[in-house]
Amino acid sequence: MTTTEQATGGARAPTAGGRAHTALVTPDSDAASAHGVKRRKSLLDQPYALASPLILVMAFFFVGPLILTIIVSFWEYTQYSIEPAVVTTNYSDVFYGCVAKLPDLCVTFKTYLSTLKFCFIVWAVTLLLGFTLAWFIVFEVKKTSTQIALFLICTIPFWTSNVIRMMAWIPLLGRNGLVNQTLMSLGIVSEPQEWLLYSDFAVILAFIHLYTMFMMVPIVNSMLRIDPEIMEAARDAGAGIWTIALSVIAPLCRPGIVIGSIFVITIVMGDYITVGVMGGQQIASVGKTIQVQMQYLQFPIAAANAVVLLGAVLMIIFAMTRLVDVRREL
Question: What is the CA angle 84-85-90, rounded to 5?
Fold first, then answer.
């Protein structure tokens, strides 16, 4: 051992060429290296480090656009220009005349009322259908393989886009469509029914077709956690099927019902494509209003409308989460 090696207490390490060299490794450097590794591990183990990828994605795709939308909602615009500013005229324009026309409803209130009507009807029907389908798959089908197969069958329509699925209703509901032809051939009606297509009925039907799965999946997840013996105990106690469904299963499925309701309500409140296609561009909704304003390059008032819509949706979600503490029950 050389004098240098003795002084440093180092060790020889082989090189790529097979020659040994003196590694400048000391007990202090070993301790520092171990401390560094431990420090790096401790940093990576921190919750914020683990959540940082998701935080970055949310910041880039959600928080950033949301802040930009809020900023633009205060900009000033004319027929020919958009200028950065801090004005509240866009929000006053959204509710222009709403107070003066009371008790009559202004255009904005009528639009929100129409949107909430679609929202409530679709929510109620998808809840009924989603709960019933989830009940059948979870409690009535005994084999797990069959449950998985039925669940996959329900997801097959989602392999195509929403636009294609909603447009598939047009040949069925049209004036010369299959439904009108069948009704006339059976003698139920004497002439084609115009209300089947490009109407509120068509919009609601398309919504239910598109979004029932968003309600069913969380309910299925909640029902799978229920012990089947609870139902047996309820039957032994003399409870009927409706009592079991409403007093036993439904309360235990509250987290799934609330999560599915949040999905359906948020989607329906902001949807404008379904309203436009199935409503024949004649039915008003908040999302459709924003889309029209965007087409005319009225970005500030469209942003103000979007912020108001976001506030309304957040209030609905807040009220639903007050009824059920989803985080505690998950």
Answer: 105
The pLDDT score that the predictor gives to residue 39 is 56
Long-range contacts of 64-68 (CB under 8 A, 24+ apart): 66/310
Rounded to an integer, the average pLDDT of 125-131 is: 95
**What band does 164 get if pLDDT is binned at 50, 70 and 90?**
confident
More confident residue, 165 or 21: 165
Checking if the pLDDT of 28 tops 70, the result is: no
The answer to whether 279 and 203 are in contact (CB under 8 A) is yes
Quick one: tokens of 136? Answer: 């059948």
Q: Which residues pair with 14 in a beta bridge?
A: 20
Which residues, in sequence order, are CB contacts of 240 under 8 Å at separation 6+?
Answer: none
Q: Can you tell me which residue has the tokens 């505690």?
A: 328
- Could you tell me which residues are beta bridge partners of residue 83? 76
Question: How many Å apart are CA 275 and CA 288, to the nearest integer?
Answer: 7
Contact 305, 286 (CB under 8 A): yes
Structure tokens at 24: 């400048």
Assigned token pair, 193 = 């029914």
